[in-house]
Amino acid sequence: MSQTDQDLMNLPKKKFKIMNLIWVILIIVGLFVSINVTDTHISVLFENFSQFTDIFVQMAHPDWSYSSTVFPLLFQTLKMAVLGTVIGSIVAFIYTLLIARNIVKNKVLTGILRIIMNIIRTIPDLLLGAIFVAVIGIGPVAGIFALAVFTFGVVVKLFYEAIETIDPGPIEALTAVGANKLQIIWFAVLPQIMTYFISYVLYAFEINVRSSTILGYIGAGGIGLYLQETLQTFDYAKTGTIIIVIIVVVVIIDYISSKSREALMK
Amino acid sequence: MANSEKPMIELKNVTKIYDNGTVGLKDINLTINKGEFVMVVGLSGAGKSTLLRSINRLHDISKGDIEIDGESITKAKGKNLRLLRRSIGMIFQSFNLVKRSSVLRNVLTGRVAYYPTWKTTLNLFSKEDNQKAYEALQQVDLADKVYARADELSGGQQQRVAIARVLMQNPKIILADEPTASLDPQTSLKVMNDLKMLNEKYGMTVLANMHSVDLARQFGKRVIGIRQGQVVYDGQMKDTPEAVFTDIYNGGDGSEEK
């Protein structure tokens, strides 16, 4: 009773933090400095604008007779994506079990394996392609390896975080039952993580389909090679065909894949 | 009293200090005989869970020794440790079922330590064990749920699946860590009756942590009171006056010299 009668205090003003203002000013200053240093101006974007429309008009009239050449290559590209995803995922699966701290208790081992993973993850896919073209030679095999390594990076990162958030209860229960390490993984861990794993593999596959179309540009096999050729011979009608076909296929695969992932997580 | 009784669990000067310096158990000496139904009571954080988890070595102890049926689990390694654990079943407050697996598979996991790894990996449980699992489910009235996914079951049903799993494991000892803490009163009663069945019908030694004094009084034959990692009371349930419980839960005095 007396609580409600009594004068209640006004909401106190939030303390003004001078550091926040300093950060904002620093960021704005940084932006202007970087514009000056790199000599970046918005006008650059419009310099060749007339050319842009020109080429765009040409691409918008694709050469459909060319599509018979495009499709076999597209299949090769997809094969690269599938193989790269499968190889990378299998390696990632085993590797991840070794870096999840709720499965392997040895912090030195998990630490070292994590550093290796993080180094691999930082390499962009095109650079990976270039490395494998240099090592293995021009052709789709280089692309497959590049995609496998790239898949490894994506899947391991997502997957180990999923493993570390699983319910520890079943692990405890299986330990109490007298199960060994492999049995614990098989009965307590895998049932909890398999859907995540499949979902991440599909996600990696989506990215790989996209990346694989461009890998040919640097000689790592697939449709990208023809993309480069037609562009260099200014054959924009053919380029247009390639781009449209790629977009349609990527959209379809993305759609199927993301729908499957949704269904899995239910 | 001490005629046919032989020690099933023996704790000798057991001390557990956690890595952060918290003392979990302080110099505990306890003997629990075959076939006993023991209630461990005490406030949250008193060390009840630590005590139970030390017995099957889900927690390692810092000092002392624990013997299971005459064999030291403290010193056991690898295969020996797993065989000792196989003889100790455990019931958890949060059931600890694999939620995405079927009820049958959950019950069968109680049996994995009886198989070599490759057989379990290929899911080669014997016909008899599948049948046994089904019979275990009948014992806890869940035969109709045999192929349901574990997460489709209610809390009480899940706990009874866990009991069927223990039945499958066929241990000498059952450690029940707050088996009814997340259940409603009626389901709690059912679960406690199942534990009683394991104790009377199969002669398993039961050691249960309880919060509910009523259930403890109703089902336990012996009471062990724990406070701040020490045993502050140990006696037969029928000789234990109500005041002892009040004491243990209120952190009262006098019970220090039991």
Automatic annotation (TrEMBL), chain B:
GO molecular function: ABC-type phosphonate transporter activity; ATP binding; ATP hydrolysis activity
This enzyme's EC code(s): 3.6.3.28
Pfam families (alphabetical): ABC_tran (PF00005)
InterPro entries listed in its UniProt record: AAA+_ATPase (IPR003593), ABC_transporter-like_ATP-bd (IPR003439), ABC_transporter-like_CS (IPR017871), ABC_transpr_PhnC (IPR012693), MetN_ABC_transporter-like (IPR050086), P-loop_NTPase (IPR027417)
Keywords: ATP-binding, Cell membrane, Hydrolase, Membrane, Nucleotide-binding, Phosphonate transport, Translocase, Transport
Xref: CDD domains: ABC_PhnC_transporter
Keyword presence, ATP-binding: yes
Domain of life: Bacteria
SUPFAM superfamilies: P-loop containing nucleoside triphosphate hydrolases
Start and end residues of each ABC transporter domain: 9-253
NCBIfam families, A to Z: ABC_phnC (TIGR02315)
UniProt-recorded name of the protein: Phosphonate ABC transporter, ATP-binding protein
Lineage: Bacteria, Bacillati, Bacillota, Bacilli, Lactobacillales
